[in-house]
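Exercise 4. Each item below gives a protein and its sequence. For each, produce the structure-token representation.

Item: GrpE protein homolog 2, mitochondrial (Podarcis muralis).
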Amino acid sequence: AQDRTLWPPTSLSFAFSTAAQQRSTGDDCGPEDPPDEPRHLLNENSLELKATKLEEQVRVLTERYQRALTDSENVRRRTQKFVEDAKIFGIQSFCRDLVEVADILEKTTESTTGGEHDDPTLTLKKICEGLSLIESKLQSIFVKHGLQKMNPIGGKYDPYDHEIVCHVPAEEMQPGTVALVTLDGYKLHGRTIRHAHVGVAVESHE
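Answer:
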């Protein structure tokens, strides 16, 4: 009788022990454990979306870079064309004015090529008048374009504007001043483009 009362508790204890062992080893996957596949799919979709955005940004930046290169090349070509035209046609106005001088010179030459019986005095007078007109026209053209002839006589010698070719005795002039000019000097907009050849006064030693 004592043996029959001990059997059921032993069977129940074995059943509980088997269930606990199954839960500890992970054999029983209950509804409280979420599956891993949806999480992996979410991560892949997020990476694909980021990759698509990055590709779009790269495409936009590449297009902007190519447009900037094209614009830069167009600006370079236009600038080069402008510089070339400036070199070629920069003196167009000056040349157009010089043509008028050529016309005066041609008319003067034609008026002095007469017959053998022309009065030499009259011919010489025409030549002088023509040359005087040419000089006046040239000087007006020079002034118009910023080219100015120096007038250094009586002024102090300046090595930046003058080139000494001789010395002359300082009679009524201060030593170191320009006494004569053998070749006119010119300035273009204030910059010396040709030095005046001058004679400078110096003290005479008797």
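Check: Helices lie at 2-25, 37-89, 92-112, 120-144.
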